């Protein structure tokens, strides 16, 4: 009987100690997503390059590259694109756990023609969504 109790207590302690924090989960999932899926073409002229978690600011940061017509059109449509990103963030259920924790979400779009040029850089906080 004592042996069963000890095994049960040790098992419970191991389960509790194996739980990861939401920050650890975000870092792990961002790294795994990048390793498995990036780079990937999301639309005709939009490629996701990586997803990173920035623990100091609790930000999930998406990095994209625009090519072709998107590379030239998007700069003139930044306000509309920013609104579209925010709309998608507000309506996604995939990020619910992170939104409930007040994470920030950042989106950086670079030009394929000129990789140093940032076409759009948008960050949303819990006050936004």
**Uncertain ranges:** 2-9
Q: How much is the radius of gyration in Å? A: 20 Å
The structure class reads: alpha+beta
Strand order of the largest sheet: 1-2-3-4-5
Fraction in helix: 40-55%
Largest sheet: 5 strands, mixed
- Roughly what is the average pLDDT, rounded to an integer? 89
Number of strands: 5
How far apart are the termini?
A: 53 Å
Q: Globular, elongated, flat, extended or rod-shaped: what is the shape?
A: globular
List the total number of helices. 5
Work out the strand percent.
Answer: 25-35%
Elements, N to C (H/E):
HHEEEHHHEE
List the main descriptive attributes of the protein structure presented here:
129 residues; 45% helix; 5 strands; alpha+beta
Q: What does this protein look like?
A:
- There is one protein chain.
- The protein is α+β, with helices and mostly antiparallel strands.
- It is built from five helices and five strands; from the N terminus they run ααβββαααββ.
- The chain has helices at residues 2-18, 22-37, 68-73, 78-91, 96-100; strands at 40-43, 46-54, 59-66, 104-111, 118-124.
- It has a five-stranded mixed sheet.
- The radius of gyration is 20 Å and the shape is globular.
- Residues 2-9 have low confidence and may be disordered.
């Amino acid at each position: 009987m004592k042996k069963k109790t000890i095994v049960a207590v040790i098992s419970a302690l191991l389960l509790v100690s194996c739980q990861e924090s939401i920050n650890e989960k975000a870092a792990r999932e961002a790294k795994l997503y990048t390793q498995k899926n990036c780079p990937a073409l999301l639309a005709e002229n939009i490629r996701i390059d990586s997803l990173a978690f920035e623990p100091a600011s609790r930000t999930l940061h998406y990095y994209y590259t625009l090519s072709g017509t998107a590379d030239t059109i998007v700069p003139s449509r930044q306000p509309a694109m920013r609104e579209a990103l925010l709309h998608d963030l507000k309506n996604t259920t995939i990020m619910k756990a992170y939104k409930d924790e007040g994470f920030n979400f950042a989106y950086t779009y670079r030009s394929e023609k000129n990789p140093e040029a940032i076409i759009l850089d948008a960050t949303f906080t819990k006050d936004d969504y």
